[in-house]
C-alpha cells in the first residue's frame, strides 16, 4: 500500500492515484492473444476519435494537458494516441506485462507506470517533488525532477513521477513474477475511471497469464 503525504493532498485537490499489484505473473516476450487484443484496441480508438479535435477535446486529455502545461510540457500519451489513431501506427510488441499496461493506458488515456514488486524497498510513499531531487530513468540517464510534481518513492528513492516517468531500478523485467502498476490521475478524472483502468490492465494480463492474482487494488484520493 501507499503512504500518502498531507503535502500531496494539499497540493493536488481532486487528484487520485491508483495502485494495482498482481502476483503469480509471467512476462512473455510474445502473446498471440495479446496481439489480437491490440488490434481490437487500435480499431476501437480509431472509431472513437474521428479527428484530432475530438482527441484534443476529450476530458481525460484536457485534464492531463492542464497538468503538463504547468511544467511547459505536452502530454506524451496524447501524442502516442495521435500516432496510433491518425498515422496508422501499431501498438509495439515489447513484453506482456508492459504491453498490457500500455494498451490500457492508450484505451483510457490514464498515465501509468509499471514496477517489479520484488525490486521495491518498502514502504512506498506518495508525495510532492522537492528541489534538487533526482533519480535514474529507464534510459539510464540521471534526471533532476520538476519541482511540485506528483511522485512515488520507496526507501531507496523515487520510482516514478508524472513529468519524468518511471525509474530504471524497479522496472519490469523478463523475470518479473509480481508486478505493481501505478496510475496518476490529476483533478478532473474520477475515481471510478481509475478503478476501471486498473481492472482493464488485469484483464489484459489474464490473456497470457490466467493465474494472475490481485494482491492489491486501491485508489488514493487527495
List the keywords.
single chain, 222 residues, alpha+beta, Phenylalanyl-tRNA Synthetase, Chain B, domain 3, 11 strands, 26% strand, globular
Account of the protein in words:
- The model has no long low-confidence stretch (mean pLDDT 97).
- The strands form three sheets. This protein has a five-stranded mixed sheet. Strands 3-10-2-11 form a four-stranded antiparallel sheet, with helices on one face.
- 38% of the residues are buried.
- It is of the alpha+beta class.
- A hairpin with a 3-residue loop joins β8 and β9.
- The chain has a single domain, classed as 3-Layer(bba) Sandwich (Phenylalanyl-tRNA Synthetase, Chain B, domain 3).
- α2 crosses α5, α2 packs parallel to α6 and α6 packs antiparallel against α7.
- It is globular.
The proportion of residues in beta strands is: 25-35%
Number of domains: 1
Report helical residue fraction.
25-40%
Q: Nearest-angstrom radius of gyration? A: 17 Å
How would you sum up this structure in a few lines?
This protein is α+β, with helices and mostly antiparallel strands and 222 residues long.
Topology of this structure?
Blueprint lengths: L1 E3 L1 H6 L4 E8 L8 H17 L3 H5 L2 H11 L6 H11 L9 H13 L2 E6 L7 E5 L5 E3 L5 E3 L5 E5 L2 E5 L3 E2 L11 E8 L5 H15 L7 E9 L1
Parallel strand pairs: 1-4
Antiparallel strand pairs: 2-10, 2-11, 3-10, 4-7, 5-6, 7-8, 8-9
Amino acid at each position: 500500500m501507499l503512504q500518502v503525504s498531507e503535502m500531496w493532498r494539499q497540493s493536488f485537490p481532486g487528484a487520485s492515484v491508483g495502485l494495482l499489484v498482481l502476483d503469480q505473473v509471467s512476462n512473455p516476450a510474445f502473446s498471440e492473444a495479446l496481439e489480437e487484443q491490440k488490434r481490437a484496441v487500435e480499431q476501437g480508438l480509431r472509431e472513437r476519435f474521428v479527428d484530432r479535435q475530438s482527441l484534443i477535446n476529450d476530458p481525460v486529455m484536457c485534464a492531463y494537458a492542464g497538468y503538463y502545461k504547468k511544467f511547459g510540457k505536452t502530454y506524451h500519451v496524447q501524442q502516442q494516441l495521435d500516432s496510433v489513431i491518425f498515422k496508422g501506427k501499431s501498438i509495439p510488441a515489447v513484453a506482456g506485462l508492459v504491453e498490457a499496461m500500455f494498451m490500457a493506458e492508450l484505451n483510457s488515456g490514464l498515465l501509468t507506470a509499471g514496477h517489479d514488486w520484488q525490486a521495491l524497498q518498502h514502504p512506498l510513499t506518495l508525495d510532492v517533488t522537492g528541489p534538487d531531487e533526482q533519480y535514474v530513468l529507464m534510459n539510464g540517464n540521471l534526471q533532476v525532477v520538476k519541482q511540485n510534481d506528483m511522485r512515488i518513492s520507496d526507501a531507496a528513492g523515487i520510482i516514478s513521477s508524472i513529468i519524468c516517468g518511471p525509474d530504471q531500478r524497479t522496472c519490469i523485467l523478463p523475470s518479473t513474477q509480481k508486478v505493481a502498476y501505478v496510475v496518476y490521475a490529476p483533478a478532473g478524472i474520477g475515481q471510478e475511471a481509475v478503478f476501471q483502468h486498473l481492472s482493464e490492465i488485469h484483464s489484459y494480463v489474464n490473456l497470457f497469464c490466467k493465474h494472475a492474482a490481485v494482491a492489491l487494488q486501491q485508489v488514493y484520493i487527495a
